[in-house]
Specification:
mainly alpha, 9 helices, Defect at low temperature protein 1, DLT1
C-alpha cells in the first residue's frame, strides 16, 4: 500500500505526462494538416495559402480557449477554497446541501443505534452488580465489609432511596463509624477486632434493636451477611447483599435514634440545672 505522498506524486506525474502527450499530438496534428494544405495548394508554397492560414488560426484559437478554460477553472477553485472558513464551527443545514445534511443525520442516528444495541444486557459477574441496575460496578463483598467501619447513618432524611444510595457510596454525605457511634450510645463498647463476629462485638446493642416475628434483630441478619462475605467460598448474591445492607441501615438508624434521645435528655437535664433556684 503506497503512502499518501507517493500517491500524490504519481498522480501529478501522470497528469503532467497526459498534458505533454496531448500537446505533442495536437502539435503533430497541426503540422500535418498545414503541410497537407501547402502540398495541395496550386503554388505549393506558404505565400497566399488561405487554407494553411485557416488551419493555423484554428489551432491558435484552440490554444487560447484551452488556456483560458484552465485559468478560469484554477481561479474558480482557488476562490472556492478561500471561501472555506479556517476556524472550527458546527455544521448546520445552511452549510450543506439538503441531501448531504440528510445523509449525515442518518449516519449519526445509525451510529447511535449501533452503540445502544451494543450495550451489555442480562450479563453479570458473580459478586458484582449487574449493568444497568443501581448496583452496577459495585463489588458486593467489598462494599458490605466496608459497612463494618462505615455503618453510620448518612443523613436524617426520610427518603429511603437516598439512604440506600448513601450506603453504597453513591452520594457525598458524611459517614459516622460504627465503633464511634456505638461508643456514643454505650461508652464501654470494646474495640473492634479484625475477625470478630458482629453478633459478639455489638452484643451490648441487642437490647436496643427491634425484633421481628422470629425474634431476630437486624444484628443477627447483619452478622450472617458479614460471615458469608468473609468466609463463603462463593461470591455474595444480590439478595444476600441487599439483606446485609438493609440490616446495616436498620442498626445505624436505631443507634442514631438512641443518640438523639441521649442528646435530648442531656439538653433537658442541662436546662433543668440552669433553671434551678440554687443557681
Amino acid at each position: 500500500m503506497l503512502s499518501t505522498g507517493a500517491q500524490r506524486t504519481i498522480s501529478e506525474a501522470a497528469y503532467v505526462f497526459l498534458i505533454l502527450v496531448t500537446v505533442i499530438l495536437t502539435g503533430l496534428s497541426c503540422a500535418g494538416i498545414i503541410s497537407q494544405a501547402v502540398r495541395t495548394s496550386p503554388t505549393r508554397s506558404w505565400a497566399r495559402n488561405f487554407n494553411a492560414l485557416m488551419v493555423g488560426g484554428s489551432y491558435v484559437v484552440l490554444l487560447a480557449v484551452s488556456l483560458l478554460f484552465c485559468v478560469k477553472r484554477r481561479v474558480a477553485v482557488r476562490l472556492k477554497l478561500r471561501g472555506i472558513s479556517k476556524t472550527y464551527r458546527t455544521i448546520n443545514r445552511d452549510d450543506l446541501p439538503k441531501k448531504v445534511h440528510k445523509y449525515v443525520v442518518q449516519e449519526y442516528i445509525r451510529a447511535c443505534l449501533v452503540s445502544y444495541e451494543s450495550l451489555p444486557r442480562n450479563v453479570f459477574h458473580e459478586g458484582w452488580g449487574r449493568p444497568g441496575t443501581a448496583y452496577s460496578g459495585i463489588s458486593f463483598r467489598r462494599t458490605l465489609l466496608d459497612t463494618i467501619r462505615r455503618i453510620g447513618l448518612v443523613s436524617m432524611s426520610t427518603n429511603p432511596e437516598l439512604l440506600h444510595e448513601s450506603y453504597l457510596g453513591l452520594t457525598h454525605h458524611s459517614f459516622t463509624f460504627s465503633d464511634e457511634l456505638a461508643r456514643v450510645v454505650i461508652p464501654h463498647t470494646p474495640r473492634l477486632k479484625p475477625h470478630a463476629r458482629m453478633l459478639h462485638h455489638f452484643r451490648f446493642l441487642l437490647p436496643l434493636l427491634p425484633k421481628d416475628e422470629d425474634g431476630m434483630t437486624p444484628l443477627h441478619y447483619y452478622d450472617s451477611a458479614i460471615q458469608l462475605a468473609r468466609n463463603s467460598g462463593t461470591p455474595l448474591t444480590e439478595e444476600e447483599f441487599e439483606t446485609g445492607m438493609e440490616a446495616a441501615y436498620q442498626i445505624d438508624q436505631s443507634l442514631n435514634e438512641c443518640r438523639l434521645e441521649m442528646l435530648e435528655s442531656d439538653s433537658q437535664t442541662q436546662f433543668g440545672i440552669n433553671d434551678s433556684p440554687h443557681k
